[in-house]
């Protein structure tokens, strides 16, 4: 069995408290990422909408232009802050997500940027599945009122370690994305996400563990910290789950950083014990990872 994770790596999830001041959010994110890397993290994840409040009313105000890439400092202060921070911290930085505006298409997106330890942009993921729900008496929210979806699976090669997949929040409810990424050799599925108090209580942990047990790889969910004075209340509870669907680390709702030591032999151990990876019946049903999967937009 080929090792998906070439060597152990320390992963950090920064459950960041954010507010209305974008510049202050970027400064605060820098402080917390550097705290994480001082503790030995080599891959650091920020939450969904880490530079702004989360909500359809906020996306246009806080949106930045990312294309053509690289954007100017004025077009995207968050892009440049993340790039500089990745280089300063000498770590892979998965920059949660930020609201994006594309002048070419006149569309808004919920977009995640990943940078290498040299500060180079490695990948851009635009949220594929928009958060449109209506639970009577609980919550009604429709990202599609403002946002447009992305159109690809995002897999990133981290040369020292292996491949990871990036998706955002509501994307986790669609196992096809995770299945494709796992079958393409990823050792971890990483989801910046801002579930709310209704869906978080119902499904946050369940979905993290389900995607892990489905695919027998690591899963990480990174939430913003909860702010009960905000218009949208994030669930929090950022967590790291191992390939056997056991919770390695989890926090509560306040600002925090959690860590997990990811190890290749753990993936191999669990896959040998319950070898569903080699027991699938593609003579009965299709392997969706070899179908018409889009990796470019």
Task: Describe the 3D structure.
The structure is a single chain. The protein has 297 residues and is an alpha/beta fold. The chain contains 6 helices and 15 strands. Helix 4 (175-183) links the parallel strand 10 and strand 11 (186-192). The longest helix has 19 residues, at 197-215. The chain is globular and about 50 Å long. The two termini are 32 Å apart. 46% of the residues are buried.
What's the topology here?
Layout: E1 9-15, H1 22-38, E2 43-45, H2 59-62, H3 77-89, E3 92-94, E4 98-102, E5 107-115, E6 121-126, E7 132-135, E8 139-142, E9 154-158, E10 162-166, H4 175-183, E11 186-192, H5 197-215, E12 218-222, E13 239-241, E14 247-250, E15 256-262, H6 264-273
Parallel strand pairs: 1-2, 2-3, 10-11, 11-12
Antiparallel strand pairs: 1-15, 3-5, 4-5, 5-6, 7-8, 9-10, 12-13, 13-14
Helix pairs in contact: 1-3
Keywords:
6 helices; alpha/beta; single chain; six-stranded mixed β-sheet
């Amino acid at each position: 069995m080929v090792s998906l994770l070439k060597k152990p790596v320390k992963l950090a999830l920064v459950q960041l408290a954010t507010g209305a001041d974008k510049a202050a959010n970027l400064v605060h994110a820098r402080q917390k990422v550097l705290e994480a890397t001082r503790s030995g993290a080599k891959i650091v994840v920020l939450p969904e909408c880490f530079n702004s409040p989360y909500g359809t009313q906020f996306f246009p105000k806080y949106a930045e232009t990312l294309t053509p890439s690289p954007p100017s400092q004025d077009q995207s202060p968050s892009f440049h802050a993340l790039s500089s921070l990745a280089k300063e911290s000498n770590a892979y930085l998965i920059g949660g997500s930020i609201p994006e505006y594309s002048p070419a298409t006149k569309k808004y997106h919920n977009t995640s940027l990943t940078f290498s330890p040299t500060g180079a942009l490695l990948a851009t993921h635009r949220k594929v599945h928009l958060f449109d729900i209506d639970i009577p008496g609980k919550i009604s929210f429709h990202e599609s009122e403002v946002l447009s979806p992305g159109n690809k699976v995002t897999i990133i090669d981290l040369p020292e370690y292996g491949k990871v997949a990036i998706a955002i929040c509501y994307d986790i409810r669609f196992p096809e994305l995770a299945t494709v990424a796992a079958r393409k050799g990823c050792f971890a599925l990483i989801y910046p996400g801002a579930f709310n108090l209704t869906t978080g209580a119902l499904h946050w942990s369940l979905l993290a563990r389900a995607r892990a047990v489905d695919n027998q790889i690591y899963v990480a969910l990174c939430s913003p910290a909860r702010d009960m004075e905000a218009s949208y209340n994030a669930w929090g509870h950022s967590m790291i789950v191992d390939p056997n669907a056991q919770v390695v680390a989890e926090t509560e709702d306040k600002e925090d950083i959690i860590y997990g030591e990811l190890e290749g032999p753990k993936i191999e151990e669990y896959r040998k014990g319950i070898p569903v990876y080699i027991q699938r019946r593609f003579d009965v049903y299709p392997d969706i990872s070899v179908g018409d999967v889009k990796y470019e937009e």
